[in-house]
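Here is one chain, start to finish.
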Amino acid sequence: MNPLVPEAIYGLLPVTVRTSDAAAGGALLDLIKVITTQAQYLDADLEQLYDDLFIQTCAPWAIPYIGELIGYRPLRPIPPQDATARADVADTIGYRRRKGTVAVLDQLGFDVTGWPTVAVEFFQRLAVSQYVRNHVRIGNACVDTHGFQCAADFDSAFDTMPRTADVRRIASGRGRYNIPNVGVFVWRLAAFGGATLAAPDKPVGSAGIGTAARVGAGRYTFDPFGRDVALVNPSQPLAQSFAVTQRANVPVALRRDALYVELEARHNGGGSQPQFFGDPPVFVVYDGNRQPFPLSAICCCDLAGWTAPTEPGIVVSVDPELGRLMFAGAPPDPVRVAYAYAFGGPYGGGTYHRPPAAHEGVAQVTTGFASVDPATLQQGVFEIADSGTFDGPFALTPAAAPLVVRTADDARPIVLGPLTIDAVPGGSVTLRGLGVRDGIVVRAGAASASSSSSASSLAVTDSAFTLNVEHCTLCGPLVWTYDGGGSLTVSHSLCAALRVDARVTVSVTDSAVDGGADVSPAIIGADGASPCGELDIAASTVLGTISARETVLIENSILSGVARFERTQAGCVRYSYLPPGSVTPQRFRCQPDLAIDAALASYRTSAGLAELDGATVALRVEPVFTSRLAGAGGYLQLADAGPVELAQGAESGDEMGLFHGMYNVRREANLRFRLNEYLRIGLEAGVIHAS
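Its structure:
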């Protein structure tokens, strides 16, 4: 019996008392309920007070107090999981027990940033004078030139070549090999996909197992769009905490020679521990029976010239550095593959988690557009569970009701051919997680044409159509010719140029719009010449020119081409980069305006300076990207050699552009702050970008 249950306490009273109380209206029972309620509050408070003694169970308000007891110094929070520092406080004792070791620096780097991390004590790799009679250390004096691995690892976290001393400070990013120096290599590009998604219990064609793109007779690319995309090692989690990070735990780029040597050893019956083709392997190619090709039938080589080896028994040749495959005989149809690629974050149509909206409800699961009756694909929620490619063109004919076409977690379906959407008044289409090779066309459907012919005075608000593009990759342009008005929302997507009717409100958030070149149109009207309508941009990168009627807000973004807005009396552009010559509403803390103003102020207060050249200052702060090639791992990642004004120029002090929401600057600052606490006395650490 629970003593805090009112009915149980009331039942202990004599029957005569309960009878009298019931006759009087139950006042005594009500009093007991009030007393028991307060007792329950007191009991719960006592239990919580006990729980508050432990970091694992304490209330959020108690976390900073427990942290204060052990001298915990809080970090700058990383959204969206920034509510408490519970895990960080809980791990502090474990960190301090291992203070000064390489293992704690590896673990600290991952826990603070979420990036795979390798700590290197550079003083262990110094070439030193030795007493060769009694204490010979070959690794500190000689370079192993017998194999390829030593040269392949040059200047990386796994470089074992001995060096002479470098007296420059590692904290400045210049020096490395010296007695007090410790380098922390971080991989900012994450690995997406991998053979771990292609478990034996999953059928071929399920999420994580994609279809290679055919680019010629017997010639394929791992990338379903037909691009040369390098393969990376699908990083494996550490077996236990505070274990030293190995090569298998980081998303290193795969090399031809390393994979070739291991495959040759496996072909010759070598019994060494597999590094790349263990369980799981770094990539899998499936045959026509939906079974992985045996390793004896695979060869890794250079396919830059599409010249496959002619060794007997080799069925498929793989070039991991270009992401190419070539078959010696008739290839299976389709060619299914599982592999990992690198990118800076969960953007575009890729193999990562995409939480569905709460209001969408249960979806009808399908394997693709071709397996659904077009008559039923008009409203409701449809989920594609296949990572294959689907030959287009395809047309969506939505009704005047919401239609959602989304992909399952880790699925990456690709539409080969244009995707046409027949817009109708009051309709709404949401695309989430798709890849479309030849772009999207939004046109007036049959219902729209009949409505406009019968009611030419229909208001724009009545005829509006809504298109939401979320977590998608569009290799072709999105062309909106439907003239009934509406809204286009692009979020967490990688898109080609947008050509949108002037009656449409366009919103681009956490996305990239690539017009091809800085002088090519990226966002413009549907006819490719006139301006589009209202355009709002947030935390995005736009490669190419922009021509629009007006804007309400552009913030934390990089616009590489000239942007021109017809109406400049209203709206604001803030914490963004716009090239000289742009015509925009009022700006607030934008580049290169800030850099030019700072140079002008320095010029006015300093004597003996040459005449100020604003064009030179503007040229210095132009964005520099690791790569501008779509599909590359470093696509639109700000280069280390680029201007700091863009890398730290957003409102929060983080980087402008596509990866603003990754908070990379904040992660690295947190790591630098925390490293100083766990280094041995006299040592200095530097953060080195491995990717």
